[in-house]
Write a structure and sequence with these properties.
The complex is a heterodimer of chains A (about 220) and B (about 350). With about 220 residues, chain A is an all-alpha fold. In chain A, about 80% of the residues lie in helices and about 0% in strands. In chain B, about 20% of the residues lie in helices and about 40% in strands. The chains are: A mainly alpha (about 220), B alpha+beta (about 350).
């Protein structure tokens, strides 16, 4: 592993961690709402949230690019606030976050749906406000699903390519993550360097999944939940 | 005092309850699906679609006319559902502490709840490892620890059958006598109802079929609930010392009964049940029978449902229910006021715990 590989790895991890942290509260909120609400709201919201899963990543990237550019609907506000997203590492975070969001929401929603609503009502009856019931009953009972979704989202963010390259480009040392670097190395015939980076991604993904397995197993031995 | 004027649409019929309950302890009887659980949920504040007015000991918790609906968390009404609904991710201790107030008062209430329900040995266990009866006790302790102004208890349906183990009845009696928390107790056992509560309501298809003294609920229960049981429940003191040969003695008021000796291993307050099938009725003085408990008495009333006659008998200051075939009851000409003798063998006394 060269020093350059190291900085690519660091940038990739930083971006993936940031993207995951950004979407975690949003994903838990969205999963909760979807689990508790029914009807048209739910169908529409489900569809919109699933778009990044079914659309080509480049298409999502292009839509993001249009929205975030200075004259775009969101870019205008960001510009007046002095925030520069496009072609920066923050842009990579935004692209990864959008692409991995559905992967967090789905398992989270399922986990919340599996909680007996009467248990939540019991929490209320014992004197806890809805917010406290959420924190003391719903979250602890759904944590497995939330963790699974978080890991899926993290791994997705780690390997995001299509949307990232459109929103943030492929700038070495600035926006070039592992996935982008592997692509670039193979394009210029440095297959060996590319393989080194592939090895790195395998190690990270493997470590992530293994760590989560261990956490889940240790907790389940204690609580049998 | 509980003032009820509640309406709630249910799947098969609307719930429509209008009654005033004055007692500290009220038994709620009626067949499965009559709306008993729904009524409790309305009072607890778990049914947002309920309309009408509910006043619990002076506090209005719901008044849809004034668009007033006190949320469940502010009602201070403890609810123990059929399936206990313990939080599976918390230990027994954390379950009981869930709704507890902070500070020394809460702490002493916690200890009291654990002691009364005898769950001290279970505190570090998780609900998945508990038996049905243990879960009910933990749920009851959890409700008591919130210092409720009213307790709502829904007896598990499994307790309808003969299964006497794991009943919460003995604990309920302690709560009634030691903590004096008013409660509504749903049961299928009219005999239990009589022991636990002076007052009873009987529900049928969402409405009140009877409201009044629990002694008198028997008549409407026989007609309305074919699954109902009429166990004779005796709460008394078990004597260790005055063992009568192979039996121990149970004192209930001024009466003393012979019960199986193996029960005397834990003397003191005890609750026993005698199934109505196990009460033998004779119109002549009994002698030469093996049964250890033979007492004179008089018939109070006779209720008939199908081929079964339920005979209520007053004897030694207690009221008994005997289940006879209609043919047997007719043959003996058992009418109110007829002098009878009842015989109960000691092994028919089964201890509830």
């Amino acid at each position: 592993m060269t020093p350059n590989d190291g900085s690519i790895l660091f940038l990739t991890l930083r971006v993936a961690v940031c993207a995951t942290l950004v979407i975690l509260p949003l994903g838990i909120g969205a999963g909760w709402l979807l689990a508790r609400r029914g009807g048209t709201f739910r169908s529409v919201a489900e569809t919109v949230l699933s778009l990044p899963l079914v659309l080509p990543p480049t298409a999502v990237g292009l839509l993001l690019l249009q929205a975030l550019r200075r004259t775009g609907p969101i870019g205008r506000f960001l510009d007046s606030a002095g925030i520069e997203l496009l072609f920066t590492w923050k842009g990579v975070v935004v692209a990864s976050a959008v692409m991995s969001f559905p992967l967090l929401v789905r398992p989270t929603r399922t986990a919340f749906e599996e909680i007996d609503p009467r248990l939540l009502a019991m929490g209320r009856s014992l004197g806890s406000s809805p917010v406290r019931v959420f924190g003391r009953v719903a979250l602890p009972l759904a944590w497995r699903g939330i963790l699974a979704g978080t890991l899926l989202a993290f791994c997705r963010a780690l390997g995001e390519f299509g949307a990232t390259i459109l929103v943030a480009g492929n700038i070495p040392g600035k926006t070039q993550t592992l996935a982008l670097a592997i692509f670039q190395r193979t394009q210029i015939g440095q297959d060996e360097a590319a393989m080194r980076l592939v090895g790195l991604t395998v190690v990270i993904a493997f470590a992530t999944v293994l760590a989560s397995e261990l956490v889940v197993r240790r907790r389940s031995q204690r609580t049998a939940v | 005092m509980i003032d009820l004027d509640v309406s709630l649409p249910l799947a098969r019929f609307p719930l429509r309850i209008e009654t005033t309950l004055s007692g500290q302890a009220v038994a709620v009887l009626g067949p499965s699906g009559a709306g008993k659980t729904s009524l409790l949920e309305c009072i607890a504040g778990l049914r947002r679609k309920a309309s009408g007015r509910i006043v619990v000991s002076g506090t209005t918790v719901m008044d849809s006319g004034r668009r007033m609906f006190l949320p469940a968390e502010r009602r201070r009404i403890g609810y123990v559902p059929q399936d206990a609904l313990l939080f599976p991710h918390l230990t027994v201790e954390d379950n009981v502490r869930f709704g507890m107030r902070r500070g020394a008062a809460g702490e002493s209430l916690y200890r009291e709840s654990v002691a009364i329900l005898e769950i001290g040995d279970l505190t570090q266990r998780y609900p998945a490892t508990l038996s049905g009866g243990e879960r009910q006790r933990v749920a009851l302790a959890r409700a008591i620890a919130t210092e409720p102004r009213l307790l709502l208890l829904d007896e598990p349906l499994a307790a309808v059958d003969q299964q006497l183990k794991g009943r919460i009845l003995p604990y309920l009696l302690r709560i009634r006598d030691e903590l004096r928390i008013p409660f509504l107790y749903v049961t299928h056992n009219a005999g239990e109802a009589r022991t636990v509560a002076k007052e009873a309501i009987v529900l049928r298809e969402g409405g009140v079929a009877f409201a009044g003294p629990s002694d008198e609920a028997l008549r409407s229960v026989t007609v309305i609930d074919p699954e109902a049981r009429f166990d004779n429940v005796l709460a008394g003191v078990l004597d260790a010392e005055t063992a009568l040969g192979e039996t121990a003695s149970l004192r209930v008021g001024s009466a003393v009964f012979a019960v199986p000796a193996e029960e005397a291993q834990a003397p003191g307050r005890a609750v026993f049940a005698v199934a109505p099938e196990d009460v033998l009725v004779s119109t002549k003085p009994l002698s030469g029978v093996s049964a250890r408990n033979v007492r004179p008495g008089a018939v109070i009333s006779r209720e008939v449902s199908g081929a079964t006659a339920w005979i209520r008998i007053g004897s030694v200051g207690l009221e008994w229910t005997a289940r006879l075939t209609l043919a047997a009851a007719d043959e003996l000409e058992l009418l109110p006021g007829s002098p009878v003798w009842i015989a109960v063998k000691s092994h028919a006394f089964r201890r509830l715990r």
